[in-house]
Each structure stands twice: as C-alpha cells, then as structure tokens.
From TrEMBL:
One of its GO terms (biological process) is L-valine biosynthetic process. This is Acetolactate synthase. Keywords: Thiamine pyrophosphate. It comes from Erythranthe guttata. One of its GO terms (molecular function) is magnesium ion binding. GO terms for cellular component: acetolactate synthase complex.
Length: 460
C-alpha cells in the first residue's frame, strides 16, 4: 500500500480494503460490527455495492454454543460479544438448532481405560530418560501427581500455568521447575534429551521424543503435535488409575519370592568376591558354587563328594580361626543341613568369631524335593521339615537359636529387602545369622541326571 503521495491519491485504509473486496467480486459480507471494525463497516456503507449481513438470528445458537463449550472438557469462561444493533433487532428465535462442535463433548470423560494406562506404564518402563510435563490441568490433582512421581521417580517440569502442581523446592531433585523461553535451563535440557515426554493437562509442542498426551479436552489432543499415545480423560482420574496399577506392581515386587541365586549374587557383589565361603550339602551348595565367583585357592570350602550335611557351620569356625584377618567368612547354608550341627552356634559365641551365616531357608530338604519332582512325579514324601500342624508358620525359628546364643539375627522374606539385609549382616561386627526365606519349588539347573550324558541335561 502507498503511504505517501498527493492528497488526491490518499485513501483511508478501510476504504482500500473494501475496494479490494469489490475488485475481487465480493458483494456480501457477514460480520458483527464492533469498536475495532467500525471503520470497515462505515466504508462498506459508503461503497453502496457490498451488503453487510448481520446474522442476528444466530443469537440462540451462539449462546447455546457458548454454554456447551464452557461446560465441555476443559472448563472455563466464554465471551459472547453482542453488538448494540443486534440487541435491537426484531427476530424469530430458533431454539432447537443442533449442537455439533468437533473436538467437544457434552459430558466430562469417565475414568480412562486400564489397558491404555498399562500401555503408557510399559512405555515408561522401556524409556531411559522420561520427563513429566504438567500444566494447569493438573492444579486440582496435585496429590495424585506427587504420588505418581513417588512411584515412578520421573523428573517434573511445568508450564507457566502449571506452577504449583508439583513442589518447586530446591531440595527435591525431581523438580525441574518451569519449562520454556524463560524457564530453567536444566528443564529445557531435560526435555530436549528425553526419550519419552508425558504431557499431562496441557497443549504439547513440537518435540522429537515419544509423546504421551492426556487432557480433558479432546480438541487439545494433537492440536500442536500428534502424540504417540493419547487419552482424553480427567487428569485426576487418569493419575488415580496410574497410581492404582503402580501401587499393585510395587506391592507385588516388594512381596516377590526371593530367588536363592539372587541372594548369592548380592552377597558376591557386596563382598567384592573376597569372602571365604563354606557350605553344607544340598541345593544351597550348588547355587553357591554357581553364583559366587571364586578367585583364590581355599576360598571355597565344601565337603565335596563326602556329601556331609552340617559341614558348613564347623567349617566356617575353622576358617575364621585359621584366617583371623580374612575380611569376610560366610557360611551359605540350607535349613536342613544347618540343623545337623546347629549346636556349634554355642562354639561360635564362645569364641566370638566374626563370621556370618546366610541361611537359604525353604522349610524343605530342597535337593530331595528336586529329585522327587524330576523323577518321582513330585511325590514329595518326607521332605517338609517345618511344623506339619501349622505349615504357614516358620519352624524351627533359626533366628531364636542365634539369639539364644547371644548374637544378632534377622529374617528377610521380600526380594526388595534382600540387599539391605545382607549389607547389614556384613556391616555388623561379630557373628550374625541372616535367615532368608526362599521358595522350595526352585530347582538347581542345569542338571545332568545320574548315569546320564551331556545330551540328557535338564535346563528348564
């Protein structure tokens, strides 16, 4: 547009716009007049060729539409601008116009599908650098959000409107604070480097990682960036669903059976493979041979072909006396074998020998159970060594034997607590007994049957 020239050529901008419309063949304009568009309406009136249609008949529909949008999905205020001339028009209202707005729903979404939630949890478990990005849609779900973060350990960043959804305390290492142009550098860096972005209660933006988008308004999902997984849901209900699943998984993990092999691997790790290991005879003996890595002669003391049950405890006493400067001496024993020489606990106390007893207790003669399972159709006669009148109660209580001899003992039943229990055993001065409850169904594998060959090995 020319801004300078003779007065004859200069024209008002609104007149130029209307003239441009005329040159394009426009003869009718549908528009609401308002303060910001008044000059255009004046120019339309002066032109004489373009008719402005004021759709006053739309008032019922527009009001209905406004309330529909206000109460659908993401709740909020709606502005209806009704010009003065529309207010004065005489019309015949149509109150029954259909309401069809793409992306809006007339009722709030219900609880999200559990399968979809589990799909997202699976993505989280596969990711190495997930980041949680939350907006104002989470303001009423702060408690659920905090629990979700506690269960997943995912770092949290927020939009400007999401500040306060998650505590921004400097002592919380998971709080990345605000993201964006004036957000923290570490929040922007974390999102840039993440491999999974969990966008809850906000509009997403162009990113290169996988995106999970949850929002109460379906019109917001995919608005700026198509997510890999999306759920239209009340974020509070979604977080409650997540937390229910994650809590169940956590409890299952906490109360999971302890694989005896795992306990030995943890012992090997915490002792740096530097312990003198003694054993009795049975499954525990074979697992100790398989899963503890031996690097020095006479680090491994067992009865070998003699098959002497009860060998582990007196062998550990002898090792502790012979090697008083040994960093660790540990008797890895089974409950059946341990009972054969349990009276030596008194010797251990009298001599105040600083070795440890790690008992793999399955309340059975484990190797006999395995042989009967494999070759006698699981006819486990006379293999249970607990209390036949109360099989749920641990019997005998090995920790009581140790305590009666004046040294500490503990029991662990859950896999999650194994590492801490073994560390405490190793760190406690003097003798210590750790009773680790393991499943009696576990078998030592691989196994070549008696009189069998390599080709006959049992591996599962």
């Amino acid at each position: 547009m020319l801004q300078f020239g003779s007065d004859e050529l200069r024209r008002q901008g609104s007149d130029v716009l209307v003239e441009a419309l005329k040159r394009e063949g426009v003869r009718t304009v549908f528009a609401y007049p308002g303060a910001s568009s008044m000059e255009i309406h004046q120019s339309i009136s002066r032109s004489g060729l373009i008719t402005n249609v004021l759709p006053h008949h739309d008032i019922p529909h527009i009001v209905k539409e406004a309330f529909f949008v206000a109460k659908s999905g993401r709740l909020g205020p709606i502005l209806i601008d009704v010009p003065k001339d529309i207010q004065k028009k005489m019309v015949v209202p149509d109150w029954n116009q259909p309401m069809q707005l793409g992306g809006y729903i007339s009722t709030l979404p219900g609880p999200p599908n559990e399968t979809r939630l589990k799909e997202i949890i699976a993505l989280i478990s596969l990711s190495t650098k997930p980041v949680l990005y939350v907006g104002g849609g989470c303001l009423n779900s702060s408690a659920e959000l905090r629990r979700f973060v506690d269960l997943t350990g995912i770092s949290v960043t927020t939009t400007l409107m999401g500040l306060g959804c998650y505590p921004g305390s400097d002592v919380d290492e998971l709080a990345l604070k605000m993201l964006g142009m004036h957000g923290t550098m570490y929040a922007n860096y974390a999102v840039d480097m993440s491999d999974l972005l969990l966008a809850f209660g906000l509009e997403t933006f162009a990113t290169r990682e996988k995106i999970v988008h949850i929002d109460i308004g379906s019109s917001e999902i995919g608005k700026n960036k198509k997510p890999h997984v999306s759920i239209c849901a009340n974020i509070k209900l979604a977080l409650q669903g997540f937390n229910k699943i994650l809590n169940a998984e956590k409890q299952a993990k906490i109360h999971a059976d302890i694989p005896p092999q795992y306990a030995i691997e943890v012992l090997e790790e915490l002792t740096n493979g530097d312990a003198i290991i003694t054993t009795g005879v049975g499954q525990h003996q074979m697992w100790a041979a398989q899963f503890y890595k031996y690097n020095m002669p006479r680090q491994w003391l067992t009865s070998g072909g003699f098959g002497a049950m009860g060998f582990g405890l007196p062998a550990a006493i002898r090792a502790a006396l012979a090697r008083p400067n040994a960093r660790y001496v540990v008797d890895i024993d089974g409950d059946g074998s341990f009972l054969m020489n349990i009276q030596e606990l008194a010797t251990l106390r009298v001599q105040n020998l600083p070795f440890k007893i790690m008992l793999l207790n399955n309340q059975h003669l484990g190797m006999v159970v395995q042989l009967k399972d494999r070759f006698n159709k699981s006819n486990r006669a006379d293999t249970f060594i607990g209390n036949p009148t109360n099989k749920l109660k641990i019997f005998p209580d090995m920790t009581k034997f140790a305590e009666s001899c004046g040294f500490p003992a503990a029991r662990v039943k859950d896999k999650e607590n194994v590492r801490g229990a073994i560390k405490k055993m190793l760190d406690t001065p003097g003798p210590y007994l750790l009773d680790i409850m393991v499943p009696h169904e576990e078998h030592v594998l691989p196994m070549i049957p008696s009189y069998g060959a390599f080709e006959d090995a049992i591996n599962e």
